[in-house]
Each structure stands twice: as C-alpha cells, then as structure tokens.
C-alpha cells in the first residue's frame, strides 16, 4: 500500500467526530494489524476488537474438558490455534497427550478410520465453521469418533454487547465469512450502523468508509461491502445442514457471562458423536488469572497494551490468557506487529 | 480462523469430494455445503467449500493473495 490510499483519504475527509467501530472477527484483526490499517485512519476513529476469535472466547472450562478427554486416553484432534490455550492445569500441548493438528473435521474422521482408539475433535468456530462439522456428522462417521462442541454464534454476543453499552459503539464491521453462510437478515434487528466487509485491505477500508457515511447520514442500516461473496440469503444449504445437526444452547464466553442461545449443542439424534454425552463430560466454571484482562479486550473496552502482563509475563511463548495464544488473538497480533497503542 | 480462500473446481469425485486449484496448489476439498460443477469458483474454509463466488472476482482475489504472499516472502 505505497503512497496515499484514496479510500483512507476519503475516511479522513468525512470523519468529523469521535467514532468507535467494533469488528467481531479475528481474521479482520489480523488483516488490520498486518496492513497497518489503524495507522491510515484519523486519530478520532477507533477500531476496537470484539469477541471474534473463536479460540479466545472458548472458556477455560472447555479447554479443561478437552484435557479430561485426553486423560481418558482419547486422541484429541483440533486446529493448531487451540494447542497452547491454558486450561486450569496446563494446555493440550503441555499435557503430553496424543494431540493431532488437523486442517478440518474431515481429517479428524480420517484419523478415526485408521485407529481403534477414541478420536475427539475439539470443535471451535462460529457460523462459518459449524456447518463443516454438521456436514461431517451427517456422513455418519465411525463409532470411535466424536466432537466436543465449543461452537458459538455471533448475533447473541452482539445483543449482549449492545445491551451492556460499555464499549459505546457507533457501529459494527461485520465478519464477512460468517455472513457468507448466514446471509444478512439476522443482522437487521440491530439498531446500529453495520457494514459487512471482506478481508483485503481495501475491503476493510471500504467497510469503514461506509460506516462513517452511515453515521454522517444519521442512518441505521446494514450495508454490504463484500458483495462478491456475501448474498442476502447466505448459503441456505449450509444453514439447513447446520440446524439439522445442532441446536442453540446457553453458554458462557470467556470474558462474558452466560449468553442465551449463543452456543451450539449436538441434537439428540446425533448424540452418538457428542463427546460430552459419550464420556459424561461437563463444562465446569473456572477462575481466571487475576491480572489478565483478556475479558476486557474481548468486550472491546481495553486494548492489549492496557494489560500489565502484556509483553512481560504474557508473551506468545508464555501466554497467560487466550488472546496471546491464538493467531487471531488481539494480544498475539499486537505483540507480533509491535503495536504500542491504538 | 475464518479465513476462506477462493479455488476453482477441477474435478468432482465421489462422496462430496472435489479436486480444486488454489492457484499454485491442487487439493481435495469437501463440497457437502454447496451445489457446484467443474469450472465454478468456491470459497474454501477449513477444507470445505462454503460458498460459490463469481469467477472473475475470485481470480482477482487470488491474484491479491499471490501478491501478498510474494511480498511477505520478500520481507521474511
């Protein structure tokens, strides 16, 4: 992005007041930091992170559940991001358990086909990812395969954030690949400016510009800055498959209380592949590290650099909280790109 | 986590598996979630196609990814 960016210039021209927009997507945060997008924006326009990193918002109790399954002798398959997230007693990586990093759930099923051992896929992710797991359960995988469902849905978390009001937001930059699946309609109920954006630097800048324009107009609508992939109806086939296998449930998010209907549990008819039922596993509440402020970072009311532990006690090698673990965690991203403050 | 990359469907195989071309990488992916034919472009996330996308725009995005990776290699 050498030279002046015309979209960024337009944003400068139109920003005539203090504005705070929240994105709800770790992939957006990674792109924003990598391309230095905050440095292109006016000082009075802040982009804050919401609870958009699925690994970061997975509470410690769910990591503990995965560790409990590993102790029972199960092979744990999951995405690489989850390995170092600290539970109450170490991480999957430090547990010495048989942990396999996989590209997706279908690769975990392949592992199950080659062993007599139990294989549990620790299944994190939002609406983008959950249909891939649902589709896999519909193929009726082998008996020694099951999933630990840690899925979360974005709109209920946005409801909570708006009701709370603590982040005083002027609008949301919506996560492009979540809306690729869900479509737009579910988001129309939110009484704030919203723009769904893609992941190239210009996609993100365009999304921000469209938010600024809405604020200036005094408008409250949902605009689409990613029309090459996001359609009104989303992907109806993926949604149908998702709802066939999963049903919404009340769950805790790291940094948040229990949010009604914000999680996904495996429906009764697929319970043979539900690791919680199969092994009698419960998610137990746990206490967080006293000084860690990941909870506030995830709610958009603190930046990673506000944390006393950031870059000192808490580093990507010695993470205290989940935001320093995931490649999409705000703290790890800021640490990597040496971001000092917004 | 929600990264999704465009790829072209080269071949459709049994059991909802397709061979796709990401530009410099050919890989088998799952197509349970989309109705596609050879030549279509799809967005691929964790080894699954999650949406069909416009061919021209997909090619453009792929070119952008290529440039990004080339730039990242230069600075690495």
Q: Give the quaternary arrangement of the chains.
A: heterodimer
> What CATH architecture of the largest domain in chain A would you give?
3-Layer(aba) Sandwich
- How much β-strand is present in the residues of chain A? 15-25%
The strand count of chain A comes to 11
Family (chain B): Belongs to the HupF/HypC family.
Pfam families (chain B): HupF_HypC
InterPro entries (chain B): Hydrogenase_HupF/HypC
GO molecular function, one term (chain B): carbon dioxide binding
Overview of the molecule:
The complex is a heterodimer of chains A (342) and B (76). Helix content of chain A is 33%, strand content 16%. Chain A is an alpha/beta fold and 342 residues long. The longest helix of chain A has 17 residues, at 201-217. Chain A is globular and about 65 Å long. In chain B, a hairpin with a 2-residue loop joins strand 4 (41-45) and strand 5. The radius of gyration of chain B is 13 Å and the shape is elongated. Classes of the chains: A alpha/beta (342), B alpha+beta (76). Chains A and B meet through helix 5, helix 6, helix 8 and helix 10 of A and strand 5 and helix 1 of B.
Protein traits:
heterodimer, A: 342 residues, alpha/beta, Rossmann fold, 5-stranded parallel sheet, 16% strand, B: 76 residues, alpha+beta, 1 helix, 28% helix, elongated
Question: Which helices and strands occur, and which strands form pairs?
Answer:
The complex is a heterodimer of chains A (342) and B (76).
Chain A: H1 6-14, E1 19-23, H2 26-34, H3 37-40, E2 45-49, H4 60-71, E3 75-78, E4 99-101, H5 105-113, E5 119-123, H6 130-138, E6 145-149, H7 154-164, E7 171-175, H8 176-182, E8 194-197, H9 201-217, E9 222-224, H10 236-245, E10 246-252, E11 258-266, H11 275-279, H12 294-298, H13 330-336
Parallel strand pairs in A: 1-2, 1-7, 3-4, 3-5, 5-6, 7-8, 8-9
Antiparallel strand pairs in A: 10-11
Chain B: E1 5-13, E2 17-21, E3 26-30, E4 41-45, E5 48-53, H1 55-75
Antiparallel strand pairs in B: 1-2, 1-4, 2-3, 4-5
